[in-house]
Amino acid sequence: MIKQHLIANARSISFPNCTKIKSFRHFCRLLFNGFFCCAVRMGSKVKGAMASLARENSFKTIFSSSRKSEDDDENQGSSSASQSPGKKWISELSSLANVVVGRCARILLLSTEDLQQQFETEASDFIKHPSRYARNFLEYCCFKALAVATQLTDHVSDKGFRRLTFDMMLAWEAPAMTSKPLLKVDIENYVGPEAFERLAPAIPTVADVITAHNLFDVLTSSTRGRLPFPIYDKYLAGVEKAIKTMKNQSASTMLSSLRLANGEMIIDVDGTVTTQPVLQHVGVSAWPGRLTLTDHALYFEALGIVSYDKAKKYDLSSDLKQVVKPDLTGPWGARLFDKAVMYKSISLPEPVVMEFPELTGHSRRDYWLAILQEILCVHQFIRKFHLEGVGRAEAISKSVLGILRLRAIREAFHILPPHPERLLTFNLAEKLPGGDLILEALSDLLPSVDARSPRNNEVHISKNMDKSGLHSTSALSTLSSLGFTFSKVSGATDETGLPVGEVLVGELTPLERAVMQSRSSFEKVELAQATIQGVKVEGIDTNAAVMKELLLPAIEFVKWLQVLATWEDPLKSVIFCTIVCYIIYRGWICYALPCFFLAIAIFMLCSHHFSKGKPITEIRVAAPPTQNTVEQLLALQQAVSQVEELVQDGNIILLKIRALLLAAFPQATDRAAVVLIFLAIILAFLPSKIIILLVFLEIFTRQMPLRQPSTERVTRRFREWWFSIPAAPVLLDKPKQEKKKK
Asked: Is residue 608 assigned to a domain?
């Protein structure tokens, strides 16, 4: 009976790639084969997983093998019934934060309870306050886990690591149980700027404290200030590619001809492709070649007939008063193309210009200009704060990682940011308002020249580690873990890296505070510069009209003084003259300038009080009539002619004074000498206030009806005397033009 029932039910079952069940024996055979295949597959998976674990011997298995269980935890959220035995669900944390903490515990080879117990022991009462407990505990776990995970050589290429760091940022935005739940981590989730700027600098290959804000702006330029995972993953893929490219360039046999110092690391190479050469201009000559930048120098190898010639080295680490700036180039010395970088120093007889030809734009030149300035800035920083040993290597490593991130942006998104220097640590600090304070705070985190011994470095590290649970990885250890070799550094504590103290759990470091203050000032400067760009107008006549309108109050005041000086209204002129003479006689003229500044300050305060935040009213300027190109050129030619006439008149005055001094016209010289002696006697014996009073009366009463005839007569005699003075001769020596040999 049972057998017939099983056969009846089995006949209705259809297996993939199988026909209907024909008999009970057929059903048992199929069932046995299915169980056997499942067992074989499960055994092969277990065997493959064990082989993978033994082969990789890294944290990749932690990132990958636990992904499925983590997704289950995320989907089931805070339901206590879904928790598996042995897992502790921390009630203060959100579901996503609990998942992230669990993943951090697995990286640290600890249980969640042990990790929480360490936090309770190390953290202060301020950090463990209930209002900030969830976020601070999450930061503690993340920083500790990242300090371990970033020591892997290929941590950037690991998909699990990328997802983990993104989940950390998502959890940081909603760490507490009362926060808005984030049950599923997918492409619809976005990371904000605060979470990125807080956690990304804990991974030196991803971001830096000083440039994290600008990096986030670049990554989210197309997503309205929120970072999705695809863009974050694409950026890290660019970082991975940039690391491999830098390694390949360092290990390439093509670069074996360069005589690099021990530990000198190649950062970038350009000019190896025939279609994109680098041209070196010295004088009017140009030659193609290959350009190589290291962390200490710039090398140019001219292209020879068969291979490259001996490299020319331009030292960037010494104090040679180097200057790197954009320049124009062109054929036969013509300045036509804005695609070059000019380098000069006191060790070179003349500047050297490196041209980066490209069909459109000058992004290639801008990239090299930015990274060259970064290397110069980092060595200026090293010299300023006298860094040696570990501190020097750490500063250079920060600079190299900044260039690495800029290359990642350029290669991943196939575009260079509008201001590439803003993604480079030391270049940005030199240009930010308050950048000197940022560099001082950064130097305090690095061992200085006095901390040369391993013992001193250990003390320096322990002091930093005592500050509220610090867990950070240095740029030097990160580069070393990526496989880049450095020269032997004195003072290194161990091979795993040196924590430098750039991240603190639950509080901001002096470096972070300096960066935030500088960024606030920089935003105000950018707003001010935006208003400047908005009010710029084109055309000489238009700018002259705007300037005339702006100077209208001063022009009206001068006109009013001229009316008083011409004595058109004698009563007003007499009153003004009397008041000024009284002020001069009483010695109050010294208070005129302070009173003027005080009046302006009072006016500004009154304007601030009555405006109440209202925008400034626009200045209405009557636009001059439009001119075509020919009229504008004629106006420009006329303006140049007027300037030339003014310069000629000035030269004539100077030549006549020279003739007076050398007695070219003795009679005029004698009169000038008598006048100067008379003025010297007056200045020597009369008080200064009497002299000022006499000068004012002389100038102000010239147009007075009683003095006007005598003034005209004296003016005419002075003009006749001045015209009678000859000018000193001038001889122009023109250099002989010698034909230059080609």
From this structure: no
